[in-house]
């Protein structure tokens, strides 16, 4: 069942009243779509789904109410961004009218008056289209084609199962609190190179099941990067892209088209998933510094190279510093 947008917004208000006992709908949605399974791999980090539960204390902080006021500044910007097909916005239309292409100018006049003032045309604030709970914004599965304008204090953004195809430089500009971006299962094929790397608080970048062939410059505080199930090629990873990411612990690049191991890997790394790629060979210094034989990389306990056309027995000198051998074919 799909709930109309106005109902979701109402629900958000009710949830805020109800306090921490209620769960955001996104957890249920994630499980229904069978996406939880792949995230189970991310357990050491407690994954994004579990994470959202942990974050709940923070989320429910009602002292963030002034965020609504922030919207005053942003209303003008909303005009430039198409949020959802207008057929979804009016509860009466959404059940009756067939889907109309976004470009149809005749349909850009929803009838719902905005709560923040005059009835507007398509420029509904994001928190009517999405569910805003404290500093979290939930926009799952509402046919978004772009990143919507976000409240300035947004900390967690969930916009999974949409039709977003590109991330632009302006999309996240000035969002200094943003810690997690989860855009799983969209159609993202490009991210402007400077769209993310200046976000000072960003820790989790979650982009599985998209169509990326390349990664943009990454922010230096990132801890968790999940780009599984894309079309990443080694040429789409900038040289030494991960070297300076001294907080990076989880790097999930499984199910892409990589033909080499990214190098160098930061010492902070705990988990490197490269299964189901096209890696055929392993340089001696892929994980360990050949000139530093006493050095042990204690953190890096979880390397997956299964599903690659490589015989790991052929590279015995590549593993001396690892606490555990990589998972993969050794015969
Ligand atoms: C993998 O390498 C080992 C060690 O050289 C060798 O004994 C084994 O036959 C190789 N396996 C394949 C399938 O080539």
UniProtKB/TrEMBL annotation:
Biased composition (Basic and acidic residues): 24-38
Keyword Signal (UniProt): yes
Cleavable signal peptide: 1-16
GO cellular component: extracellular matrix; extracellular space
Region spans: Disordered: 22-49, 86-105
InterPro entries: Leu-rich_rpt (IPR001611), Leu-rich_rpt_typical-subtyp (IPR003591), LRR_dom_sf (IPR032675), Mimecan/Epiphycan/Opticin (IPR043547)
Subcellular localization: Secreted, Extracellular space, Extracellular matrix
Cell cycle listed as a keyword: no
Main location: secreted
GO BP: any one term: collagen fibril organization
Superkingdom as given in the UniProt entry: Eukaryota
Coiled-coil stretches noted in the UniProt entry, renumbered to this chain: none
Keywords of this entry: Disulfide bond, Extracellular matrix, Glycoprotein, Leucine-rich repeat, Repeat, Secreted, Signal
Biased composition range(s): Polar residues: 89-105
Family per record: Belongs to the small leucine-rich proteoglycan (SLRP) family. SLRP class III subfamily.
Listed name of the protein: Opticin
Organism of origin: Sciurus carolinensis
């Amino acid at each position: 069942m799909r709930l109309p947008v106005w109902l979701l917004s109402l629900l958000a208000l009710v949830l805020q009243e109800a306090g921490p006992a209620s769960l955001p709908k996104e957890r249920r949605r994630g499980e229904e779509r069978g996406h939880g399974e792949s995230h189970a791999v991310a357990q050491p980090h407690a994954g994004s789904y579990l994470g959202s539960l942990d974050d709940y204390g923070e989320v429910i902080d009602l002292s963030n109410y002034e965020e609504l006021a922030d919207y005053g500044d942003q209303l003008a910007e909303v005009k430039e961004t198409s949020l959802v097909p207008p057929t979804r916005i009016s509860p009466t239309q959404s059940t009756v009218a067939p889907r109309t292409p976004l470009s149809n100018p005749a349909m850009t006049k929803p009838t719902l008056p905005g709560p923040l003032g005059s009835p507007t045309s398509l420029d509904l604030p994001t928190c009517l289209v999405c569910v805003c709970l404290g500093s979290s914004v939930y926009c799952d599965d509402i046919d978004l084609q772009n990143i919507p304008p976000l409240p300035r204090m947004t900390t967690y953004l969930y916009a999974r199962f949409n039709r977003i195809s590109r991330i632009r430089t302006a999309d996240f500009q000035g969002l200094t609190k943003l810690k997690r971006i989860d855009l799983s299962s969209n159609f993202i094929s490009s991210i402007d190179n400077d769209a993310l790397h200046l976000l000072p608080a960003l820790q989790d970048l979650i982009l599985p099941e998209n169509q990326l062939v390349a990664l943009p410059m990454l922010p230096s505080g990132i801890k968790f990067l999940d780009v599984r199930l894309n079309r990443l090629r080694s040429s789409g990873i900038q040289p030494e892209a991960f070297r300076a990411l001294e907080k990076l612990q989880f790097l999930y690049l499984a199910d892409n088209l990589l033909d080499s191991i990214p190098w160098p890997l930061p010492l902070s790394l705990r988990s490197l998933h490269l299964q189901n790629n096209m890696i055929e060979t392993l340089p001696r210094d892929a994980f360990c510094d050949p000139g530093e034989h006493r050095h042990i990389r204690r953190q890096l306990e979880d390397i997956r190279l299964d599903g690659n056309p490589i015989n790991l027995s052929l590279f015995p000198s590549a593993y001396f510093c690892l606490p555990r051998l990589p998972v993969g074919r050794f015969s």
